[in-house]
Design a protein that fits this description.
It is built from eight helices and five strands, in the order H-H-H-E-E-H-H-E-E-E-H-H-H. It is an alpha+beta fold and 199 residues long. A hairpin with a 2-residue loop joins strand 3 and strand 4.
């Protein structure tokens, strides 16, 4: 590690923790990080708590393991234009469409909505596709919107839920209490479902 007047050890250690997730581990424990980085558990724990407060990591309350938080993806997105994201995502969208036969959409967060940015048509003809590139959908009534909303910083989630939620169908969740419960479930299972909630 470089040692000079500009070197801040705590910053370097925090960045090393974040880089540990690049080794293919989606979730890690304090003990694993301590062993991997050669740092005391107490030091790793303090750094993780700080990173968690800043939303760079998230702690699973059930297992105690940590995973990357939404701030990482927000930061990464600032360096990518929608066109770059579409190019990077396209092979993965094609792979999903081929594997499941369903139409696959890439949706990006934009204020109180998500916008379909790329689409690959599936081979399954029994289900009519209703999305299109450029379509805006509310965060609380679309599966991609709820998936994004679930992993936004709590401050942004509460700001969104504090406003009246528009009802699009009889199934639309417009009650903030019920929506909070569903967002908690989405965070646990890592996917979202919308059943007749938008149309």
């Amino acid at each position: 590690m470089p040692q000079n007047s500009q070197y801040v050890q705590s910053v370097a250690r925090a960045l090393r923790i974040l880089m540990a997730f690049a080794d293919g581990h989606s979730e890690v424990s304090v003990g694993d990080l301590s062993q991997q980085l050669g740092l005391p558990k107490s030091t790793v724990s303090r750094l993780l708590q700080t990173l968690e407060q800043m939303h760079f990591v998230m702690r699973d309350q059930r297992t105690g393991f940590y995973r990357l938080g939404p701030a990482i993806f927000t930061l990464a997105a600032r360096g990518l234009t929608p066109e770059h994201i579409r190019v990077v995502a396209r092979p993965h969208l094609h792979a999903l469409a081929e594997q499941f036969g369903e139409t696959v959409n890439l949706s990006l967060h934009d204020g109180d909505a998500v916008v379909n940015t790329e689409q690959v048509i599936g081979t399954q003809r029994m289900i009519v596709r209703v999305g299109w590139i450029g379509r805006r959908m509310p965060l609380h009534a679309a599966s991609s919107g709820k998936a994004v909303l679930a992993f936004l910083p709590s401050r942004q989630v509460e700001a969104y839920l504090s406003k009246p939620l528009e009802r699009y169908t009889a199934q639309t969740l417009t009650d903030a209490v019920h929506l909070r419960r569903e967002l908690a479930i989405i965070r646990q299972r890592h996917y979202a479902i919308a059943m007749n909630e938008l149309e």
